[in-house]
Amino acid sequence: MELHIAKDAAQLSENVAAWISNYILEVLQRQERFTFVLSGGNTPKQLYALLAKAPYNQIIPWERIHFFWGDERAVPFEDERNNAKMAFDTLLDKVSVNPDNIHVMRTDISPDASAAEYEKTLKTYFGKEQVTFDLVLLGMGDDGHTLSLFPGLPIVHEQKAWVKAFWLEAQDMYRITLTAPVVNNSACVLFMATGAGKAITLKNVIEGTFDAEKFPSQLIRPQNGQLHWFVDEAAAGALEI
Ligand SMILES: O=C1O[C@H](COP(=O)(O)O)[C@@H](O)[C@H](O)[C@H]1O
């Protein structure tokens, strides 16, 4: 695991934008297409806005990138809480992506149907054996959740399904999420976490004993890939390093 600490959230977003851009360009020297899994929530908004502007809007070959989502809130696309809408508003509507390469988790059908359809999409793209994303961008909630893997819920233990929908009582909505084993097959996973509100949880996730039931972000350990944590000083405040 590599830990990268930035002064604040703005600097963090700059650092991640530069890192991702270099990584995409490097990987695309070896292969034709790049698979990029986007996260939702607040943390990546600044990053997406930066990627949509110079120099990144010009140097990244956007038409060669396939976009996927790590999780979705099952609310209509027009709803501000919809993770895909946030990515369209901040990034995808502003760069020259190929619309056929954008693979959203649908919220206009039932959550279970959407999860089944997404799993089919992944199998069509990657083949039936396993998914290997080039880059998975993740956030971590103050409670230690990542994707839609929330503390204390059965979804944390899912080993078989690649994508699953479930009712999230605490937020009065369905969630659709990739599962931990799928993400752990990726070539690279990059977490972003900012703010003092995440400091104690981050310490538990990175330095604490393994308790995925309590801190699902601990489940993310790519088997053969890289794991990067990009955090700001406020989030890193309780770490011992
Ligand atoms: O609900 C979600 O939360 C996490 C973390 O969000 P943040 O607002 O603390 O950055 C996010 O990564 C996930 O995609 C989203 O659905």
From TrEMBL:
Pathway: Carbohydrate degradation; pentose phosphate pathway; D-ribulose 5-phosphate from D-glucose 6-phosphate (oxidative stage): step 2/3. Residues 8-229 form the Glucosamine/galactosamine-6-phosphate isomerase domain. It catalyses: 6-phospho-D-glucono-1,5-lactone + H2O = 6-phospho-D-gluconate + H(+). InterPro entries: 6-phosphogluconolactonase_DevB (IPR005900), 6PGL (IPR039104), Glc/Gal-6P_isomerase (IPR006148), NagB/RpiA_transferase-like (IPR037171). Coiled coil: none annotated. The keyword Ribosomal protein does not apply. It comes from the Bacteria. GO terms for biological process: carbohydrate metabolic process; pentose-phosphate shunt. SUPFAM superfamilies: NagB/RpiA/CoA transferase-like (SSF100950). It holds the Pfam family Glucosamine_iso. Keywords: Hydrolase. Its EC number is 3.1.1.31. One of its GO terms (molecular function) is 6-phosphogluconolactonase activity. Belongs to the glucosamine/galactosamine-6-phosphate isomerase family. 6-phosphogluconolactonase subfamily. Hydrolysis of 6-phosphogluconolactone to 6-phosphogluconate. This is 6-phosphogluconolactonase. It comes from Chitinophaga terrae (ex Kim and Jung 2007). The lineage of its organism: Bacteria, Pseudomonadati, Bacteroidota, Chitinophagia, Chitinophagales. The gene is pgl.
